[in-house]
Amino acid sequence: MIHPSDIPTLPRGVRTHFDTVRKTDVLLGPERVLMLDQIGSAVLSRVDGAQSVSVISADLAAVYDAPQDVIEPDVIAYLQDLADKRLLDVRHG
After folding, report:
1. Is the Cα dihedral 75, 77, 79, 81 positive or negative?
2. 46 — phi, psi (to 5°)?
3. Which of 2, 10, 34, 77 could form a disulfide with 27 if both were Cys (CB 3.0 to 4.6 A apart)?
4. Where are the domains of the chain?
5. In sequence order, which residues have a C-beta less than 8 Å from that of residue 54 and are 6 or more positions away?
6. What's the pLDDT tens digit per position in 21-77?
7. Where does 7-87 sit in CATH, by number?
8. Do residues 52 and 6 make contact, with C-beta atoms less than 8 angstroms apart?
């Protein structure tokens, strides 16, 4: 289970990419492609292996002028889904 103090990172072989054919951001992993919506792109653009989930959520809250306590559970759920699919690693903080 991902916690606010945890630090997410993309594992080796997984990266974000702009797909020019589909004209959308995608997450590329071994033998899979996940199309990203605006929210997924916003979250993953902040996953750098240094920032905690709490910091990522605070940044998104500031950018989208929304309460962090509302955004953070959604960020955690999104990242947990990616981790369950083995498209995200998490270092417990």
Report:
1. negative
2. -100, -5
3. 34
4. 7-87
5. 4, 5, 72
6. 989 999 999 999 999 999 999 999 999 999 999 999 999 999 999 999 999 999 999
7. 1.10.10.1150
8. yes
